[in-house]
């Protein structure tokens, strides 16, 4: 016997390995579906049979003169009643197919409103209802992911704040108890930890504003190569201590409309990160160039590319993929894990993009691009 064949997008009526009707342990749902369909078909057949029998009797009565044909036609009422019954069956059948899944979605929405983001609904029913169920499940998956990210963020913030606060509390208690001498050296340690706290709080504020799209940019025409040289000079002492050379290569020779304070912060984070992961005798290069813009004419608006490359230990592909995540730290990292996340937010606020390319043992290159009006900004 040929079994019903399943095709993608169709719900299986019963297992193809079973006979017709379905039977066997664990097959009650399939059997219920089968008998419901059988009952609906039987109901329609009975209606048709009754209608046909009554019509035949009425016609025979008319021919024999038993029935008065001057009055309203009974077959007309029978047809009307049959269509009304069929319409009611169809209405309740369609209502059940749509109503049951919609009720499930509404009940699930109540659970989500109560904070249960693990809620999912079954995908069945007509195509629009299935689309609604899929959209609902996608929404709850994203809500669950965002809720987990929020929890992780709170845990990471608490962890980062705990360390400097512990140092400050221990040092102040030691000073009060006379364990540490009350001199400038002891107070300088406390002051350094308060600076760490202030920097962490400011980083969190900047990250929150950039991710919310509420960061205010003070744009002005800026020589980005000069900005890069200023950043290199700021790290000159630290780089010299590790015998690391910081070079600036300007191939674009152009000015660009940016917020110089924010882009300086991006470059500072990138160079600081490169210094932490570079070995003695290494090199850090900041290269500024015009990014490729497909087939656009030379004087059209394009993008300016800034690449910060180091000769450090490099990263794996998985680390490079996650390097812009908040509080992500690679092996041996001593930072807060916010620098590159902030850089991504600041570049995004300028309408740019940023990505990382790395290979273990061959260094890391982080490149960001910014919108650039070549026609008006070339020097």
Q: Helix amount, in percent?
A: 55-70%
Q: Considering the protein shown, what is the CATH homologous superfamily of the largest domain?
A: Histidine kinase-like ATPase, C-terminal domain
Instruction: Please state roughly what percent of the residues sit in beta strands, choosing from under 5%, 5-15%, 15-25%, 25-35%, 35-45% or over 45%.
Output: 5-15%
Distance between the termini: 82 Å
CATH top-level class of the largest domain: Alpha Beta
Strand order of the main beta sheet, please? 2-4-5-7-6
Shape: elongated
Work out the number of β strands. Answer: 7
Mean pLDDT across all residues, rounded?
Answer: 76
Class of secondary structure makeup: alpha+beta
The third-level CATH topology of the largest domain is Heat Shock Protein 90
**How does the major sheet shape up?**
5 strands, mixed
Question: Please, how many helices?
Answer: 10
Characterize the structure shown.
- This protein has 379 residues and is an alpha+beta fold.
- The protein folds into three domains: 28-140, no CATH class; 144-211, Orthogonal Bundle (Helix Hairpins); 220-377, Histidine kinase-like ATPase, C-terminal domain (Heat Shock Protein 90).
- It is built from ten helices and seven strands.
- The chain has helices at residues 28-64, 74-113, 127-177, 184-211, 224-234, 236-241, 260-276, 317-322, 339-349, 374-377; strands spanning 220-223, 245-250, 255-258, 283-290, 302-310, 353-358, 364-372.
- Strands 2-4-5-7-6 form a five-stranded mixed beta sheet.
- A hairpin with a 5-residue loop joins strand 6 and strand 7.
- Helix 1 runs antiparallel to helix 2.
- The longest helix is centred in the middle third of the chain and has 51 residues, at 127-177.
- The N and C termini lie far apart (82 Å).
